[in-house]
Each structure stands twice: as structure tokens, then as C-alpha cells.
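Quick illustration, no need to memorize.
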Amino acid sequence: MSTQTNINLNDFYTLLRERHSVRHYDKSVSIPREELNDMLELSTLAPSSSNLQPWRFLVIDDPQLKEKLLPIANNQQQVIDASAIVAVLGDLKSFEKADAIYSKAVAGGYMDEATKAAFVDRLENTYGSLPAERLHNINTFDAGLISMQFMLIAKSKGYDTVPMGGFNPEKFSQEFQLPDTLRPILLIAVGKAAKPAHPTVRLPLEQIVNWNTL
């Protein structure tokens, strides 16, 4: 293993250890939208079920809209103080983008047209026949993958985050006029910490890991 690889791994391990959920933010810090877009674009490299990429984002950085969001998010102060709130949404019709996604795979030389056509037909039939709640469960899993990726990327750029499941999804959908095909899954506050995160502890491996049998 080269020295450069070791340095990159060490940086990554440090990033994992230093990322904590921060709830107190410096209100004076504003993250440029271009930088937020860069972080979100990198985040989309996360895996998803059948590569359908069902995540959609509503980034809320307008102070008045944050005020409207505050009671919906149980009056958590980070909603107001953080630079932005990234609402991670799940698209119940993500399978309708299968043709566009796999057409890019053909253009990139990753598969041929016949394989693409078979993939798209299978995905549209399979996902299109699933009930909404099953699709939402799949989207929730995929949202967790991209959300963690976003939080690590934000930390690598010197920002802090906190994931928030404590909000009213029905009221969020109403206030921000989401179509029925989009469901809110998670809110992520992102900005500069005003004070360090509270220390947290983890269960030891012997309490959570078994090998081959329980």
C-alpha cells in the first residue's frame, strides 16, 4: 500500500471519528448555494435500489421559510440557526426515470441497448406494481444511504450537520406543497457549529456482532 493511500485512509478514519451531530449553529455563516450543490452532487454517488436514485432534495435557506418549518420540526432551534435545511424526499415514481438512467448507461458504454430495454421493462413492471408503502420503505432505505454520504461530505468541507427525524411529515408536505408522489423522509441541518456536539458513546462489538449464528 502506497504512502498516499495511507494518508487518504487516515483522513477518512479521522472524518468518521470527528463527525458528530451538532445542534448549535453559527447564525452568521451562510453556505453558498454552489457549494451546497457540489456536496449534493457528490452525495448522489451513493448506491440505491436498482440505481433508481429515488432521492429528491428541497433545500431551505430562506429565513422566512425556516420560520415556517420551525413548528413543523418540533421547534428545534437548529432549523433557524443552521445555514440550510436539506429535506430528503422519496419519489414514489422514481421508476419512471429508469429509461433516462439506463440510456445514460448505454451512452457511457456500460451496457447495450437490448440489455437496457430488458432492464427498463423489468424495473417499470416490478416497481410500478408495488404498493406505495413498499416503495416508501425502499426509498427510506436509499435516503439513509445518501444522507450519511452527505453528512460526511459536509464534514470534509468543514461544516457540521444533524439528521432530524423529529418533524411532522404530513404538515411538511402541506406547507411546502409537495405532490403526492414525493414523501419527506429526513431533514438535515447543515452549517458551522457554534459549540461542539455532545459526546456520545457506542455499544461494544460483543453486544451487537455475532458470527454465523445468534
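Residues 122 and 203 are 42 Å apart (CA to CA).
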